[in-house]
Design goal:
By secondary structure, this protein is of the alpha+beta class. It has twelve helices and 19 strands. Strands 12-3-14-13 form a four-stranded mixed beta sheet, covered by helices on one side. It has a three-stranded antiparallel beta sheet with strand order 15-18-19, with helices on one face. A hairpin with a 6-residue loop joins β8 and β9. The longest helix is centred in the N-terminal third of the chain and has 12 residues. The structure holds iron/sulfur cluster (2 copies). The site of one iron/sulfur cluster (SF4) has 14 residues, from α5.
Length: 432
Amino acid sequence: MSSTVYNWQIGRAMSYPHEERHPHWQFAFVFNPNRCIGCQTCTMSCKSTWTFSKGQEHMWWNNVESKPFGGYPQHWDAKLLAMLEEVNPGGQTWDASQKDGQKQPYGVFNGMTIFDAAERRLRPEGPQMALGYLPTDDEWRSPNIYEDTPTGQNFQKPDQYSGNVELPEHSVWFFHLARICNHCTYPGCLASCPRNAIYKRPEDGVVLIDQSRCRGYRRCVEGCPYKKSMYRPTTQTSEKCVACYPRLEGKDPTISPTGAPAETRCMSACVGKIRLQGLVKIDEQGAWANDPKNPLYYLIRERQVALPLYPQFGTEPNGFYIPPRWVPRSYLVQMFGPGVDYAIEQYSCPDRELLGILQLFRANRQIIFRYEIEPGKKVAEVEVTMPNGQSKTQEIFNDTVIGYNKLGEEVVRVTVEEPTFERDASMHVNSI
Ligand code: SF4
Ligand code: SF4
């Protein structure tokens, strides 16, 4: 049954093949590609937990791809963008002037989502529920193809992703885009499943595939715009990221001795401290409940420093990214929508509160539901070059940021300045 639902990321109502229904809490995360070093520790922590068995050899629920050339499966985003353009030539545009508070924070997307476009693209077997395609075996074969490969001469031509040429953009660039399933509010995978085998958990919005119902038709693989549902030939079913749900349920006694929710494996393992994961409260109408002391709410809704990945696809993904500062703007706007300039402006010179919240990334394995900041003394003034080339002075205070878990217990306390310790050389001479 098709219905009309509201998607705040595109600032408008849209059609969706199922009735509107919302969870009480929603799994969400912020990744900061400005800090990602592409070490793939997250990738391997997921692999060694969930996808190390026969038939899962090419299955990477977490992957990190080097943009613009890398992709797993190869070209996943470029292919779908091209399909949308073909259905709606020249129409995939935003009107960023129509911003309106929390209802349409980035303006309005005037183009077609994957659900709108599916109705326009008929196939012999009938329309799809969500516009998509099935990648070839070759495209799944090399998860880190073009790893660490920067743009070259081709990308220096004036019209090709050149964007704004002022600092701090680089003319030769790449960045690491870490990806997992976005546990979308309106999942393309769920919409496409003819067996109704995919469901969204009411307690945390995690999207799961019921293995006993799945018959391996791979419609979810086709219909997920992020290509995060994958087929397993040995069981002839599809599988996807399960958001480490036992950890979300506080079932790991080592990490959650009091039973409070913990972050997933990939989040906990992140060496570059680029990840912060949480659960956000959803109100009766299905909107994010106002909760500015939740660090995710603060970064995404209050400050808009973290943006959704390809919001124009229309699934309302719950993964958000702080756009990398050095990348040409036109490329970033295509990927994260029209909020890019504002997000980079803030991240380039974070104020006192934002700088404090940024310290919470990877500070603890339990999910932080609330933060507080205790003021400290001013420790520095730093000259910062802003994206428009102008100079700005950043004041840095050594504030203490305190994080609390779901039960209200304090689980972390960090200062803005990292403490340093000097070892007495005569005490611990290293003999190796
Ligand atoms: S990212 Fe893909 S697999 Fe995950 S919920 Fe969204 S549509 Fe489904
Ligand atoms: S562990 Fe963190 S820093 Fe390393 S590749 Fe993954 S997201 Fe990037």
